[in-house]
From TrEMBL:
The name this protein goes by in its record: ATP-dependent DNA helicase RecG
Source organism, top-level taxon: Bacteria
Organism of provenance: Polynucleobacter sphagniphilus
Domain Helicase ATP-binding: 282-447
Keywords annotated in UniProt: ATP-binding, DNA damage, DNA recombination, DNA repair, DNA-binding, Helicase, Hydrolase, Isomerase, Nucleotide-binding
Length: 691
């Protein structure tokens, strides 16, 4: 089957070869192997989907309370009503009076008796044969029918070359040693089974993806991913990088690093000292560092980045710190200037909002090497930026950058002679299962201790109906000389969400708190305006800051010890965890109020409950992983490529270690087979896993 003969819609989904189609496995199945009379369906179909058939005896379009199509079918045992709230003229025609149709769906009690709402419908002759296997339902993009995908998959599985693509190329003794059980079928059999399971298949195991056929596919996919990551790890160790040793009296004596340690107004915590020792060891190697630094909000990651930058500059190399938002990048810039300028370091600032003239001057300073420490947003990885001698790249809140962006900075800073060291930082802890699978090429450090004086934050969950009480409490809070944040999810009115907006809240709070200055900051303000509001808040000229999530990361105002998050049910785990970390930075007891609107979904209720009970970032990260999956936590969704398609990292965690052991064995003894395995499973996606 050639690419040309496949519909363009399938090619856009990446289903452009027989192998891609063979590996496009069903999301679920429908059982169309059994047919019930209408009378049986009325009894059996109250909680599960059932299939029945009959002749259409009525077909009418009603316009009240809304436009809908009502169709009635009957057989010799009973009649059944079908209701369609969205329908096309072609469907009306298909179900014309006198037509014989087969329908599948759940039966529920409607206003006029038992009915099926939006069942699947097929025109059939009365004695049409039933399928002998479960019907696969495939993941699909809008506008692509299941019929088109099923036809293409069947054609792909009959392709002469597919046997070679799915062949067992690992030697049998090795397979016996690698696979944890003999019950798992060969790969080709597993894939054929998953596309067309027999009628007596264990449907539950298929749906939960615990069936031996699924296990074989999951193991193969994990194996490819682990091989790719471990190989990237080996390749990195073969690359050259500048070695940044600690300066001693014998080699120039005191440098920027020693100077920084002297001017810091605090001592490093034990956890910071441990982490700095690990990074110090990394940058002294002759291959590039690739380390992830995890630390909860306020644990002191910035000073570690500063020490690493100082070490690079001590060896006459440049260092760059990149952050996802201008507010966070600017926060880093101001802090680095405060620490480094007294030591004679030239600290440069580069962001998209700089005027053209300033941008050119900064770019020239970077290219000449005059700028030693460069802080900025993703503007740092644009084509127009050329570093003179970059030795260290620090990427803050790394999951906020797409995979391609992280990959780009790695490739841009490299040259034929050396690659720069790379340090990624995040306040969103990476669950262990995620670290094992997606960060096999990363060394991970954790700051698991808050600096002295940081107090725990009390979190309260409050109904939106008690808004006036919250504002009253806010009045007495500000009266003590303390400051507060009021966070809103939207800037403008949205009919769909009907949320209180930042603008509305700002006006309401300004009116309710006439004795205090209320400020407003949101993403649509110009950078200068945003900076002016933030500076006024920091100087306590503004007591209450109404904001959207632009303050999620990087804002440090010790006197702000209260945060109210409006419509907290609309925020994710990580967002609230990050926002909450903006308070608790001073000596006052800190409080975070999560205000929610009813009704609450079960997921939102569980999320708010978890956030009230714990401030442990790792517990929150595990819950977040189970809710959202790995793609969003990694920034992988921004790459446009699926990551692990068939593995659930929590349910299938036990498979990860097996895949790691198998990957080590193949890389050690069977390098000739590694390429074939990677090509089958990853193709061009192998590049993303190195990012």
């Amino acid at each position: 089957m050639t690419t040309k003969r496949l519909p363009t819609t399938l090619q856009k989904m990446g289903l452009d070869t027989p192998l891609a189609l063979a590996l496009h496995l069903p999301a679920r199945y429908e059982d169309e192997t059994e047919l019930y009379t209408v009378k049986e369906a009325l009894t059996r179909g109250r909680s599960i989907s059932v299939q029945t058939q009959g002749v259409v005896i009525r077909n009418q379009v009603l316009f009240r309370p809304r436009r809908q199509l009502l169709v009635t079918i009957e057989d010799e045992t009973a009649s059944l009503q079908l209701r369609f709230l969205n329908f096309y003229p072609s469907q009306q025609k298909q179900m014309a009076v006198g037509a014989h149709i087969r329908v599948r769906g759940e039966v529920r009690e409607g206003f006029q008796g038992a009915e099926m709402v939006h069942p699947t419908v097929r025109s059939v002759v009365p004695d049409a044969a039933l399928p002998t296997s479960l019907t696969p339902v495939y993941p699909a993009s809008a506008g692509i029918s299941q019929t088109v995908i099923r036809k293409a998959v069947k054609q792909a599985l009959r392709d002469p070359g597919i046997q070679e693509h799915l062949a067992e190329f690992l030697p049998k003794p090795l397979m016996a040693a690698l696979l944890p059980t003999q019950d798992w079928p060969p790969l080709q059999s597993a894939i054929a089974y998953l596309h067309e399971p027999p009628a007596d298949a264990d449907t539950q195991a298929l749906l939960e993806r615990t069936h031996p056929a699924w296990r074989r596919v999951q193991f193969e996919e994990l194996l490819a991913q682990q091989i790719s990551l471990k190989r990237a790890h080996r390749i990195r160790r073969e690359r050259r990088a500048p070695s940044f040793q600690v300066l001693t009296a014998a080699n120039n004596g005191v440098g920027i690093e020693a100077g920084l340690i002297k001017v810091l107004p605090f001592k490093l915590t034990g956890a910071q000292q441990r982490v700095w020792s690990e990074i110090s060891d990394d940058v002294s190697q002759t291959f590039p560092m690739n380390r992830l630094l995890q630390g909860d909000v306020g644990s002191g990651k910035t000073v570690i980045a500063a020490l690493a930058a100082a070490r690079a500059m001590d060896h006459s190399y440049q260092a760059a710190i990149m952050a996802p938002t201008e507010i966070l990048a600017e926060q880093h810039y101001l802090k680095m200037k405060e620490w480094f300028e007294p030591l004679g370091v030239n600290v440069a600032w580069l962001s998209g909002s700089l005027k053209a003239k300033e941008k050119k001057l900064t770019q020239a300073a970077i290219e000449s090497g005059q700028a030693q420490l460069i802080i900025g947003t993703h503007a740092l990885i644009q084509e127009s930026v050329s570093f003179a001698k970059l030795g260290l790249a620090v990427i803050d809140e790394q999951h906020r950058f797409g995979v391609k962006q992280r990959l780009e900075i790695t490739q841009r800073v490299g040259s034929e002679l050396f690659y720069c060291h790379q340090l990624m930082m995040t306040a969103t802890p990476i669950p262990r299962t995620l670290a094992m699978t997606y960060y096999a090429d990363l060394d991970v450090s954790v700051i698991d201790e808050l600096p002295p004086g940081r107090k725990p934050i009390a979190t309260k969950v409050v109904k939106a109906s008690r808004r006036d009480e919250v504002i009253s409490g806010l009045h007495s809070w500000l009266g003590k000389g303390l400051q507060a944040y009021w966070v809103c999810p939207l800037i403008e009115e949205s009919e769909a969400l009907q949320l209180q907006t930042a603008m509305e809240s700002f006006e309401q709070l300004t009116h309710a708190l006439p004795n205090f200055k209320v400020g407003l900051v949101h993403g649509r303000l110009k950078s200068e305006e945003k900076a002016a509001v933030m500076a006024a808040f920091k100087a306590n000229e503004i007591q209450l800051l109404v904001a959207t999530t632009v303050i999620e990361v990087g804002v440090d105002v010790p006197n702000a010890a209260l945060m109210v998050i409006e419509h907290a049910e609309r925020f994710g785990y990580a967002q609230i965890h990050q926002l909450r970390g903006r308070v608790g930075r001073g000596s006052a007891d800190s409080v975070c109020i999560l205000m929610y609107a009813e009704p609450l979904s079960l997921a939102a209720k569980e999320r708010l409950q978890t956030l009230r009970e714990t401030s442990d970032g790792f517990v929150i990260a595990e819950r977040d992983l189970s809710l959202r999956g790995p793609g969003e936590l990694l920034g992988a969704k921004q790459s446009g490529d699926a990551m692990l398609r068939f593995v659930d990292l929590q349910r299938d965690a036990w498979l990860i270690e097996l895949a790691q052991q198998a990957a080590d064995r193949l890389l050690a003894d069977h390098l000739d087979l590694v390429e074939r395995h990677l090509e089958r499973w990853l193709g061009s996606r192998a590049e993303f896993l190195k990012a």
